[in-house]
């Protein structure tokens, strides 16, 4: 952390914060990105690097890992944009001319702040079943960071949301057999992916809930599942691995302890059409921002980033020209 006063401090280096950092670099703002994890990339890098993302403009399909690598390459074209990793923002206060931002690595100052902190810190919602804790990391997983680890295995995927469906389809060509278990008969997901699931070799087991995991002598795991709304209808499945996808528990309480308090809606930050919060010069984009019709998608956040950055630049430098349209001049 330096004594400099930045034009824009971006809090959160997920995909949206990364793109905002790049775009602010194009606008020649003095900018820094502060990220609490040891890597950039947010949920995409931390939770689903192997997943194929289908709904980012310009890609017929891109893995989470590749998308973040591309964002990193794009950000590297503006090396003057500073990045502070393993640095968590713990408080933001407003002074007469700038915000003071307290972090775990010291204090910094900025004329405008752009929140891009997603859902805050996040962790997977855990399986509540006998022996689940002991099996975590052995036969029970909450994400796929290396698809090949499951090669030729019998894998049970648990969950009924779009991530569980995506995960089952992602494993299908690699694993020996994939089974998808869900407590309801219906699956939520993009229509195209649910159709793909129906046409796949993935075995569907519904409406069942996992109750117990037991390690077998040959280093597999026996899964006991109960049929819902019945007393004693139990089934046993023996597989190599169980991958649970029950969603994530987000902790975005951090912001509530800051002195600066923008208006919230269910812990998300309310913004106007220019992505400004109720606090002047405090902006918010990506999953952390809420407004009518908001979708928490990467594409949405990518669209919000230039709007916020351009509005900030207009405010800080009212005499500067608006962005020229050819970004090619930068290189
Ligand atoms: C399993 C799964 C699959 C998904 N699939 C898709 C998909 O196919 N297509 C799609 O468009 N979207 C998908 N999404 C949603 C997508 O990942 C999010 O919309 C996207 O990550 C939002 O980006 P973001 O940069 O706003 O926030 P995040 O990715 O959440 O990044 C926020 C960053 O801020 C950091 N941070 C938080 N608090 C602080 C702090 N106090 N100080 C410093 N840093 C902080 C966090 O560590 C994090 O790195 C999926 C989500 C999940 C969980």
UniProtKB/TrEMBL annotation:
TM helices/strands, residue ranges: none
This protein's record includes keyword Isomerase: no
Residues engaged in binding FAD: 35, 43, 48, 89, 122, 287, 327
Catalytic activity: 2 reduced [2Fe-2S]-[ferredoxin] + NADP(+) + H(+) = 2 oxidized [2Fe-2S]-[ferredoxin] + NADPH
Keyword Transferase (UniProt): no
Top-level division of the source organism's lineage: Bacteria
Cofactor(s), names only, from the UniProt record: FAD
EC number(s) given by UniProt: 1.18.1.2
HAMAP family: FENR2 (MF_01685)
Name of the protein in question: Ferredoxin--NADP reductase
Species the sequence originates in: Fructilactobacillus ixorae
Organismal lineage: Bacteria, Bacillati, Bacillota, Bacilli, Lactobacillales
